[in-house]
Amino acid sequence: MRPRVEEVRIGGLGVIDEAVLELSPGFTVVTGETGAGKTMVVTGLGLLFGGRADPSRVRPGADRARVEGTLLVEAGGRVAQQVEDAGGEVDDGQLIIARTVSAEGRSRAWLGGRTVPVGTLTYLADDLVAVHGQMDQQRLLQPARQRAALDRYAGEELVKPLRAYELAYNRHRQVAGRLAELTSKARERAQEADVLRFGLEEIEKVDPKAGEDTELREEEERLSHSDALRTAATTAHGALLGDPMSGAETGQDAISLLGAARAAVDAVRDFDPALAGLGDRLAEAGYLVSDVATELAAYAESVDADPLRLAAVQERRAQLAGLTRKYGEDAAAVLEWAGRAAARMADLEGDDDRIEELTREYDELTDRLTALAGDLTRVRTSAAQRFGEAVTRELAALAMPHARIVVQLSQAADFAPHGLDEVELRLSAHPAAPPLPLGKGASGGELSRVMLAIEVVFAGADPVPTFVFDEVDAGVGGKAAVEIGRRLATLARTAQVIVVTHLPQVAAFADQHLVVEKASDGSVVRSGVVTLDHEGRVKELSRMLAGLEDSELGRAHAEELLAIAAADRA
After folding, report:
1. Looking at residue 77, what DSSP letter applies?
2. What mean pLDDT value characterizes the chain?
3. Which residues lie in coiled coils (predicted)?
4. Is the C or the N end of the chain the one with fewer CB within 10 Å?
């Protein structure tokens, strides 16, 4: 089952207060008097599929415009899968899409019951609908749109080579950017390398060790205060053990005093266990003080005032200080800086090799891109021939029998995301006329028919489920209008077609006819949408033909148009 729009509800949009459009699977036409709000129907459909939100379109007095659409889609199909990927749901083959636009310009969108970014609706629309208004005709004049039209017509034949080209093109840009960056910053890289090289050489010359600065600071303290340290150790030793060189027994050293205390306690220790315990502790204290005194004597002997070593330590500390001022707070930090600098030096010194590698890859990618662009050109050239002939045949059916569409390909100066091809649609209005760009060779009405012809051709190559046209028949009348109606009816055999028109010749070919009716109480204008039966269609076509709903001549002409259209469809 092909997706289609089943129902659209519009509220607070332009002159439309509330309206419901129940749409048929085939050709639906929307008509109405000037100012009734026909274009708001197309605007509403455009909003539903991610169109630009214009707060000026919000109905005066309303806080927001609202559009809600019910679409029939295949459960488990591509569209349903996209909805599920966005977090929405398709209920029994029905998809609900909604959009609001506030008077302040804020816009919100819902897809399958889930709030989504408006861009999600735009993405989804690619598989659902092609909306064409007067602005779309102007966009058709843009070279990029014309190339996109040709690529769409080329179809699957172009997909694989275009994908291969796009992958190569993206890599080509990355390589070119990196190569330009490395080349343009060669001087900066050389300066950075010099700074790093000087620092590494300076550090290598000093050859610091982790923790060395702390050890040297402690050694300098000892060497600078060697006399005071030796005197303190000797004095402490004398206080604990006495001076053996004096020859006098003063008995005032700590060992002697502890010995006297221990002797006093030992004399009576048998009479009280508590005192005996204290005596043991005095013995332990004597042994400890004796050990400390011995170590103090050894320390005093080890302290050496070495002016040469002190000078060497101070010089080494000065060297380390020179490094820590530049590269880190201590020797360990300096070594860390050296490690990072060495790694960065390796990168910088490898840039020349990298430039050589990138240059070689760039040249290879350029050759590959040239070959791939040639593949694209061959596919497009073949498609351009077929496309031009197909559109020319459709123009003949749209009362432009002598017109001819030519698709001209030219080569751009540099690679672009789509290749080297620049595409331009040209129109030759008659056999003697040279093919001219559409903007110069086509009038407004002719441009409308060219656009319709292109969509009819697309319908056979890459059909879109729903087409929406806003006054595609602008500037057209007479026989050409009949042919436009006939081609729209043909297009509706394979797709749902919704057309806003002011021409009865086009409206007569519709399977369903909706009229936008305008009502006014003198101060407020409201519009609604009504589905017409056969009698209603006769009256509306009569109004469109003669300006009078009940004109006998107009009614007769309307009946004739409907009969011709019915016979043609049959």
Report:
1. S
2. 85
3. 348-375
4. C
Q: Which CA distances in Å does 486 have to 50, 129, 565?
A: 30, 21, 8
**DSSP alpha helices (H): ranges in 185-306?**
186-206, 212-224, 226-241, 254-266, 273-302
User: Can you say whether the dihedral through the CA atoms of 149, 155, 157, 159 is positive or negative?
Assistant: positive
Q: Residue by residue, what is the 3-state secondary structure of 505-522? A: HHHCCCCEEEEEEEEECC
User: Is residue 26 packed enough to be buried (19+ CB in 10 Å), middle (13-18) or exposed (0-12)?
Assistant: middle
Please, what is the angle between helix 444-461 and helix 331-397, to 10°? 110
- Inter-residue contact 437 to 405 (CB < 8 Å): no
State the pLDDT at residue 459: 67
Burial label for 444, CB within 10 Å (0-12, 13-18, 19+), is exposed
Phi then psi for 404, rounded to 5 degrees?
-145, 130
pLDDT band at 136 (very low <50, low <70, confident <90, very high): low
* Structure tokens given for 2: 């092909």
What is the Cα–Cα distance from 144 to 149, expressed in whole angstroms? 9
Strands 27-32 and 64-72: unpaired
CA torsion through residues 106, 112, 113, 116, sign: negative
pLDDT for residue 526 is more than 80: no
The pTM of the full predicted model, rounded to 2 decimals, is 0.60
User: Containing H/E element for 320?
Assistant: helix 307-327
Structure token pair of residue 211? 């923790």
DSSP-derived pairing of the beta strands 466-470 and 496-500: parallel
pLDDT category at 523 given cuts 50, 70, 90 is very low
351 contacts: CB under 8 Å, gap ≥ 6? 182, 189
How many other CB atoms sit within 10 Å of the CB of residue 286?
18
Angstrom CA distances, 325 to 320, 321, 328, 335, stand at 9, 6, 7, 13
State how far the Cα of 302 lies from the Cα of 546, in Å rounded to an integer: 128
Exposure of 169 by Cβ count < 10 A (0-12 exposed, 13-18 middle, 19+ buried)? buried
Distance set, CA 263 to CA 77, 211, 491 (Å): 108, 51, 127
Tokens of 434: 């040279």
**DSSP per-residue string spanning 165-195:** HHHHHHHHHHHHHHHHHHHHTHHHHHHHHHH
Q: Quick one: average pLDDT of 270-280?
A: 89
Burial profile 205-243: b = 16 or more Cβ within 10 angstroms, e = fewer: eeebeeebbeebeebbeebeebeebbeebbebbbbbbbe
pLDDT tens per residue, range 54-75: 888 888 888 899 999 999 988 8
Distance CA 541, CA 481 (A): 14
Q: Of 36 and 453, which is predicted with more confidence?
A: 453
Residue 483: which of 429, 564, 560 has the closest Cα? 564
- Confidence class for position 398, pLDDT limits 50, 70, 90: confident
Residue 557: which H helix or E strand, with range? helix 552-569
User: Quick one: tokens of 57?
Assistant: 């379109």
Quickly list DSSP for 421-484: EEEEEEEESSTTSPPEEHHHH--HHHHHHHHHHHHHHHHHHS--SEEEEESTTTT--HHHHHHH
